[in-house]
Amino acid sequence: MSATTQEAAPAARVRRTRLADDRRTLDDAIADAVRQKLSVDERGPSRFYFNDVRCECCNGIVKLEGRVPTYRLKRLLLSLIENLDGIQEIDDRVECDRTE
Which residue spans within 1-100 are E strands per DSSP? Predict the structure, then answer.
């Protein structure tokens, strides 16, 4: 193996590591933005109904799990986050206690 090839391999690993770290940082920022949006709803007390909703983000895909009391609140939850920057897709696993 030539010296140039040996030097290129560590540099490639460093770039991949930085990209992975950047992706994790972006995913963490997206998840934090979703949590913030659900905890500070300007529309009223509905934020209290989102306490049982958990959020994870991986590669821009936001996974929501948990329960809300009504389907109407589930629709509100999704509308609050659907246009946040960085979200590629929403994996909605939120269940409703009752439909309306």
Answer: 53-58, 61-70, 89-98
